[in-house]
Give the backbone structure.
Amino acid sequence: MTPAVRIGATGFGLIAVCYGFARFAFGLFLPQIRQDLAISPALAGVISGGAFLAYCVAIVVSARLSERIGSRAVAVGAAAVAAAGMLGIAASPSALCLAMFVVLAGTSTGLASPPMALAVAEAVAETRRNATNTVINAGTSAGVALSGPVALAMGQAWRTVFLLFAASALVLALAAFVSLPGKAAKPPGAQRVGGRVTWDPNLLRLVGASFLMGASSTAIWSFGGEIAAMRLGWATRGAGLLWIAIGAAGAFGAGAGWLIARLGINVVHWLFLLVLAASLASVGLSFTTSVLTLAGGALFGAAYVMLSGVYLVWGTSALPQRPATGLMIGFLTIAIGQTAGAPLFGFLLGRASLEVTVLVFAGLGLAAGGFWFGRGDIADDKDKPVVRVQGGGRASCG
């Protein structure tokens, strides 16, 4: 088995469990959890925002740890934290306990991504890195898609569901221990690991774009089940169909590396921001139907995974000598946007109509298109990443 296949498969599974189960399944089961534990929409938004905030802290820690102690230890830790968080969710007797364990489970996602980027940089041939990274990133869609049928079959028994999810996280901990590099190593071509990041305009634009996209996405990730219940009267089992649509279409995001290589980051970025806005409208506006909601879910899944793949390639291309940190910058600011977006959505929903709230969040997604990759920082008209070098010069990479 080649390193690309071995690491890609392990990373795909780890991301599926940490993102699809530990982080995003909460939004799927939220209507039933709210009913059982008497949680208000505003409190649900705060809990979701807390999970995203935990992610923000964890991904910074993970990037540094991955560079210092290696990808294997951090990835195994991510799976173990996911298991602990989901066990706690399953056993939570109150909203306060639930909030604590949702935050713990959300921490696992921040821990999971940087070690996988480092493992790819260490062991996968350069020509296959973008493709391998974006395949790993698409694991989110697999986890989301798998949680949908589980919700259809066991929608009321959410505690049992999270016990099963926790068991799957333990399996991935073992897989990561067996499959990933055991010692920290410099990626090929790297001069050193650590030090300061040069915050050039390209990285600053990445921060702006990923923040707004992340905020926009919380309309579905945190409140998709609520929106479907409000618009169509769907219970948890019905919302499971929406999650299946999101996850199945999200597999399209595995082709982000291929599409970026052919169209460029900027074209793919703008195209899928339009798809993101259209998906929110299809699910959340008053004209929606069951068919439109499922179609909107599919559009959202494809757009979210594709856009996160864009930000992954953007960050790792801008910092090829520090891939874990490059990924961290984009994914961290997605999560900061989600940390702000989830409480904001809950606040607006409690004070304005669902129609207005959804339109505001679709607008946030479109606003991310005001930021672009590379322009003004490259020597030609292609989306070729720039690497800052000592002495103030610059060199193109890739």
Summary: The chain has 16 helices and two strands. The chain has a mean pLDDT of 84. The first strand starts at residue 386 and ends at 388.
